[in-house]
Each structure stands twice: as C-alpha cells, then as structure tokens.
Amino acid sequence: KTANSNAKLVYTTVSSICSEQETMGSNISGSAKIDCSTGAEAADNNIVSVCGTAIKNALSDNGNAAGEAYIKVDNNSVEVVQWHKTSEDSIVGQYPDPSDDIENLPNFSDFEDNFSE
Question: Which tens digit of pLDDT belongs to each residue from 35-62?
Fold first, then answer.
C-alpha cells in the first residue's frame, strides 16, 4: 500500500502543477522517469523541469528511499504514475488503477514504451 500511496502522492503533486500551468496558459505533455530523491532525470524533460522539485519535496520524508517514478502527462492531464523504491524492487505502486493484490502488481516497465527517452 505504501507504493500505491507514493504513486498517488506523485500523481496528485503533478496534477496540481499541471492545473497551475494550465491557468498560466502553459501546456505540459510528455513522459519521464524521475529520481524522486533528487527531482532529476537523466535527460531534459519539461515534466521534470516543472515538477521535479515539487515531487522531491512531496516525498522528502522518505529521504534516500524516495524512489523512482514513471510519469505520463498529456495536455496537462496526468495519465499514469508508477512508483517503486529501487530498480531492483518488485513492489510497484500505480495510480490511477492501483493493484490491491500482490499477485497482480504491475511491472515497473509496463508503460516504459510510452515514455520518451
């Protein structure tokens, strides 16, 4: 449940920022894999530049265990967020459509093909 809670927290954080951006006349679209402990990603991405620090701050109570998230946004609408503690972790949280059964957890890479490099 913690993984799903963290995915929902990232989802809510990004949704809030997307609403603010839309109010200012800006549009966020794209996808990213984000290191939630630093708010950074390997490549430049407008989702990271606009949302990275807010995601880091939202998960700051987790410290170095803030994890990684995949985020997909289309026209200021968050489509999906997946979160896991480490790349080796088999527990994956997702929002929306979180799994409540350990036997039916999504793979962290389920949406990877939808994310830009």
Answer: 888 877 645 556 777 788 888 888 887 6
